[in-house]
Amino acid sequence: MSSLAWLEAAGLAAFWSAATIGLYVAAKRLNQRLRRWWSSPLVLAPVLLIALLLALHASYRDYIGGTRWLLMLMGPATVAFAVPIYEQRAMIRRFWPVLAMGVAAGSGTSILTAYGLASLLGLNGDLRLSLLPRSLSTPFAMVVSGDIGGVPDLTAVFVICTGVFGAAFGEALLVWLPLRSSLARGALFGMGAHGAGVAKAHQIGAEEGTIAGLVMVMVGLTNVLAAPLLAMALR
Amino acid sequence: MSLHATTILFRRRLHMSRLGQMALMVLFWLAGEALTRATHLPVPGGVLGLGLMLALLFSGRLSVASTRRGAQFFLGELLLFFVPAVLAVTDHPELMGWVGIKIAAVILVGTVTVMAVTALVVEFCCRWSMDRVQPRMA
């Protein structure tokens, strides 16, 4: 690569990274005041970025080439979950059988509804397979998607849609369902809406937030371990 | 300075430094990645790193004080790392239109069902185990 091309690539990377971080921070601030589903940093920031991409006639490859390092930070962010898990070890020891039941029921429902509904609406092949792991948090889901023959970057988009829908409708569900235990309220968000759900659960209560975070990690781990079996069943 | 004194000094520094703790988490992740590549395990590197860090925390070799600030940053800004992933839709024009609406419907109905089933199962397990431990007054 000539030095000029290298300079251009570095400039593009710096520009798109700055745009992503800037719009994320702006959306986060706005969301703290408005708290609407559309003001979530996961909705507002991508929508504005897509508008910017279209306005500048830039390509997805330019964008993702410059911001891939942000996606890679999901790795250390996964490691960071060790800290809340360790701090909540007493609660885990006490409640893990109940939570494991919830994770098993939720994962089963998730796979069956995704497969059933997709077939019903005539979505087949890659798309249907990419929809299966959408209840997992992103780093896990992308691995599972690849394992079972889906398209990992499509799965990432579906996972994020799941989080946004789940966080938005979870509160309405809490009104309708006769839930007395904070365990059930936390599991609802951790299983249904992962990252975005955990953030929402923390707003409802500290205990709910902890349970949601824990359930999210449990879901990811069990499903990554079960994925090779699922892949065999689908072939 | 003796080696022991140096480690103590290093630990004290790490307790204060968010950046140092973040670097520590990146190191755990890289170790996990290297391990998955070497062993061909079907687990993401971050998950192995998480396991590694948990093991060190439980064994007492790593104190929570030297990880908490770094973890707070990564977990607090979790959504930022997902933003670039959403832009993948621009690379899939087939999602615009009818197929996209169908997919949104699958995700919406599926998610609400999953949340309801999970919450109800946990709720009934809770009530059942409570009743067994301390029978409710009739």
UniProtKB/TrEMBL annotation, chain A:
Keywords from UniProt, A to Z, are: Membrane, Transmembrane, Transmembrane helix
Instruction: Indicate yes or no for the key word Membrane.
Output: yes
Q: How does it sit in the membrane?
A: Multi-pass membrane protein
Membrane-crossing segments per the record: 6-26, 38-60, 66-86, 98-123, 154-179, 211-234
Q: Which domain of life is it from?
A: Bacteria
| Main localisation | membrane
A cellular component annotation (GO) from this entry? membrane
Q: Where in the cell is it found?
A: Membrane
By its UniProt entry, which Pfam families does this protein fall under?
LrgB
Entry-linked InterPro entries: CidB/LrgB (IPR007300)
What is the protein's name according to its record?
A: LrgB family protein
- Which organism does this sequence originate in? Rhodovarius crocodyli
Automatic annotation (TrEMBL), chain B:
Segments forming a coiled coil:
none
- What keywords are annotated for this sequence in UniProt? Cell membrane, Membrane, Transmembrane, Transmembrane helix
Please give one Pfam family short name. LrgA
Stored InterPro entries: LrgA/CidA
Name the membrane topology term.
Multi-pass membrane protein
Q: Which N-terminal stretch is annotated as signal sequence?
A: none
State where the protein is found.
Answer: Cell membrane
Q: Which residues cross the membrane?
A: 46-64, 71-89, 95-122
Primary place of residence? Answer: membrane
Annotated Gene Ontology cellular component terms: plasma membrane
Entry-linked PANTHER family: HOLIN-LIKE PROTEIN CIDA (PTHR33931:SF2), HOLIN-LIKE PROTEIN CIDA-RELATED (PTHR33931)
The name this protein goes by in its record: CidA/LrgA family protein
Q: Which species is this record about? A: Rhodovarius crocodyli
